[in-house]
Amino acid sequence: MNRVSTNMPVADAQYSMRRAEERVSGIMNKINGQTKITSLRDDPIAASHSVRYDSYLARLNRFEENVEYAKDHYNNTHDYLNSTMSILHRINELAVNAANGVNSHDELKIMAVEVNELLKEIVSLSNVMGPDTKQAFSGDKVFTQPFRIVEGTVEGGPETLITRVEYRGAGASRQVEIGDNMFIELDIQGGEAFWAEKMQIFSDVDATDYRAQENGAFFIDGVEIPVAIGDTLPAIVAKINDSAAPVKASIDIDSKGLVLEGTNAHLIRAEDKVGGASVLRDLGIISGNMTNNAPNWSETARVAGGSVFDMVIRLRDGMLRGDQDFIGSQGIAGIGLSVNNIAYRLADIGSRYERADAAWQRINAQIPNVTRMYDREAGVDMASAITDLKMAQTAHQAILAAAAKILPQSLLNFLR
Question: Residue 202 forms beta bridges with which residues?
């Protein structure tokens, strides 16, 4: 005969109440979390899909933030370069006025003083610190000022004028990720934005019998160019010209040495790869590797091609000398080269902005699509969830009501 115990209905009632409470709690957790998957066993396949969609959404949001930062950076850089362009236009007006032959020497000196002050403003713009408290034209060396003013006396001028502006160097251009394995250049360095002439570097080392003694590589404007044992100067010239570096290489007819010439106005950056062949040093191009990308040319190399600051200084000094022929020819021409390069860099920034904006639109079209895919796998149908919750709550209340009638009974109730 089965034994009847008062614990049996109590245990059954508690079990049923716990199951009902768990069901109510589970539905409420899904509603609160806006997901129908609270554990993998709810729907393993949907869970695996939702994890991938959620991860991709996180990356898209990161890419969107990167693009917005890039667009802000491009806008700021455009404003700085546009301000530089306005100053150069004013300097050009002064140059044209000074070259017309009707101004006295004293009037030209007065113009030179204004040009010197405008030059200071251009240097200030080249060393400007953006809203993010980082140098705008220093690449990844965000706390390094690219240019430094050197002041002194100039014949025919006031007590102190800018005698030269030294390039102190900058780091590599930063990149931001705007998609999976998709990057966009963020920076324009000072050696690019504030240059006027195409640089030329002429080596005086006769490299007729040159042979590379070991495998290695060197860098031209950040582009790695490999070198193999036995490479001759013509082979190295061909490798430079076949690379993506914005530099054209050739062999000087007189010196038989290497010649590098920029394909556009910028400061050429060159260095040997650490731990390999010292090709550029052996060929007499550089004296050693760079510090912050500052110039490192060999003392015997001849370097031509000046910056925007060099062009303005040359014009100002021509005004101080009263040399109207120089002002009307080389002076105005130098300012024209500076304007052309700034215009080119403005167009470059505009192109990057347009690409960033296109990426922003692409990302913001993807986010709703991926969100919809995620909701399909893990999202909660609120109407069904609320209906299920009401049914579970009703069942729970029914169990509580039944238990209230059953639990007061004792063994005597079963013996009657």
Answer: 259, 302
Which residues lie closer than 8 Å to 385 by C-beta, 6 or more apart? 27, 30, 31, 36
Q: Which residue has the higher pLDDT, 226 or 22?
A: 226
- Lowest mean pLDDT segment, chosen from 2-16, 192-206, 264-278: 2-16
Mapping DSSP to helix (H, G, I), strand (E, B) and coil, where does residue 191 land?
Answer: helix
**333, 303, 302, 340: which is closest to 318 by C-alpha?**
333
> CA–CA separation, 93 vs 100, rounded Å?
11
Q: Over pLDDT 90: what percentage of the chain?
A: 57
Cα 285 from Cα 258, distance rounded (Å)? 8
Q: β-strands 216-220, 270-272: how paired? A: antiparallel
Mean pLDDT confidence for 269-282 = 86
230 dihedral zone (left: phi>0; alpha: psi -120 to 50; beta): left
Task: Provide DSSP, 112-163.
Answer: HHHHHHHHHHHHHHHT-B-TTSSBTTSTT-TTS-SEEEEEE--TTS-S-EEE
Q: At what angle do helices 105-126 and 308-321 cross, to 10 degrees?
A: 160
- Compute CA distances 141 → 175, 291, 314, whole Å: 13, 11, 30
CA 416, chain centre distance (Å): 88
Q: In the prediction, which pLDDT does 41 show?
A: 57
Give the separation between CA 76 and CA 195, rounded to whole angstroms.
19
Residue 330: DSSP 8-state: I
Task: Report pLDDT for 164.
Answer: 92
pLDDT in tens, 216-240: 999 998 899 999 999 999 999 999 9
Tokens of 303: 């370097």
Q: What is the pTM (predicted TM-score) of this model?
A: 0.79
Rounded to an integer, what distance in angstroms lies between the CA atom of residue 325 and that of residue 224? 44
